Amino acid sequence: MRFFRHSDRIQTPNVGKSGLMEPEYLVRDLEAKAAEMQRRAEEMQEQIKSANATATSRDGAVTVQVAPNGALQNIEFSQRATSLSAIQLTQTVMQTVRQAQMEAARKITEIVEPQFGGTDAMDFITGFMPQPDDEQQTGKESSGPQKNAPKRPEPQSGWDDDDDLNDGRSFLR
Q: Residue 159 pLDDT > 80, yes or no?
């Protein structure tokens, strides 16, 4: 399992008479590498903290801002939002939030890729990044139900809160 690029390996030309690396050079080199890694880690942390993303819907009705971790920080509605139905507004908000989350994820990837690209750590990080759905890839809005929408639970046959309704059918239908 690799967590850093090959360039982070210690390469010191200070070899003693025995053909082995002199301990004081090894320690000095290790300390320098550790200090450089600490500096880069602090730099990445600062960059990640500022990797917010903002997205606006195609029609301009919704603008959102998300934190680097994808959490919604702000949402604004233009006058255009008042002409949308509740379902249209919901879909527009969700699509715009996903768009901003993908942008934040892209920024994070750009920040950490130089240090961790091609490693198991990078695979781990990108494994949690949001992926575009079919609608975002094609640019077309779907007219049917959302494929990731939660499914309605099936009624349980042993449901017995009210004997009058225990015929296996939900009273909510």
A: no
